[in-house]
Design a protein that fits this description.
Length: about 325
């Protein structure tokens, strides 16, 4: 499993992809009664993937993720040729529509949130960022002069630019002041380090203590890095934000199957409803293919005010 992590980082895969691959590779090993994957061989892939479909009834995306993880194990980690897999049964992918809030529902949810959770939620809805892209923002990524937010190494390792809402300018400025205050306290206590991407920590040893590399939404606690021995302050927990968001949904009386990511869907749908062209929305969302963005046209048409024929009777 250590070798899996090494290969993931050598290929610059995201932390979440690495965690997902490690999880499914462990599941694969347990499925074959803890035999080494090299001893099982590529012939063991098909029974495992088919069991996910028949025995666990997983979704198509979950099965695809598990298959990619096991293929990564053999091809990239063990360097074993897989070849053609006969008898592979894939789960049918369903074309569902994303859950979207109305404007009034967004207003109610935001009103039910407070403190830092509300600021993050407002930024997610106002920019269309993914939750990880938002929480991993660093001080240097917010440019008040240009009125832009730079997203570094988003999904697929792509960079892009977002436009922050004008009404959040003061709140973001105050948040950076709080970050500077926390960072100053950390420095005086012998800490003040932030984790750096890739090999920057080796190339610029002192960069981790600079304010510009601190997270805009830092964690409340610091953690000891086993490798370097430094005390690091990571970004705020995604699970904490999700919990506060679920509580806000309940308080607002909204019974949709929604999550924090629903704010991103609402951002795109509401922009489309206001007349923004689909190409601009694609750029703001960071989609590689216009087909991915086109799903919001279906959502928009589904929620338009259409008069039912029953109301015309």
């Amino acid at each position: 499993m250590d070798l899996v992590s090494i290969v993931c980082r050598r290929r610059h895969l995201s932390r979440r992809t690495e965690e997902a691959y490690r999880y499914w590779i462990r599941q694969y090993i347990f499925f074959h009664r803890k035999r080494h994957p090299r001893d099982v061989g590529p012939a063991g892939i098909t029974p495992f993937i088919n069991d996910l479909a028949a025995g666990r009834s997983v979704a198509a995306t979950t099965q695809s993720q598990a298959l990619n993880a096991v293929l990564f194990l053999y091809r990239d980690v063990l360097e074993v040729e897989v070849g053609h897999m006969d008898g592979l049964r894939r789960v049918q992918r369903l074309s569902g529509l994303p859950v979207v809030f109305t404007v009034e529902e967004v207003r109610q949810v935001l009103a039910a949130l407070g403190g830092l959770s509300r600021l993050i939620a407002e930024l997610l809805y106002g920019t269309g960022l993914r939750i990880t892209e938002c929480l991993t923002l660093r001080v240097k990524d917010i440019d008040f002069g240009a009125g832009t937010i730079h997203i570094r190494s988003g999904k697929g390792g792509k960079d892009r630019t977002a436009i922050p809402p004008s009404r959040l300018r003061t709140a973001l400025h105050e948040q950076l002041i709080r970050v500077a205050r926390i960072h100053k306290h950390d420095l005086t206590s012998g800490a003040g380090h932030a984790p750096l991407p890739g090999g920057m920590g080796h190339k610029y040893p002192n960069a981790s203590r600079m304010l510009c590399w601190q997270f805009v939404f830092p964690s409340r606690i610091t953690r000891k890095c086993l490798g370097s021995g430094r005390t690091l302050r990571w970004y705020a927990s995604e699970s904490t934000l999700q919990k506060h968001f679920k509580d806000a949904l309940s308080q607002a009386g909204i019974h949709k199957h929604a999550s924090v990511h629903t704010l991103r869907h609402s951002f795109a749908t509401h922009l489309l409803a206001s007349g923004i062209d689909i190409r601009t929305i694609q750029l703001l969302l960071g989609h590689s293919c216009i087909k991915t963005t086109m799903i919001y046209t279906h959502v928009h048409h589904a929620i338009r005010h259409t008069i039912s024929p029953l109301d015309l009777l």
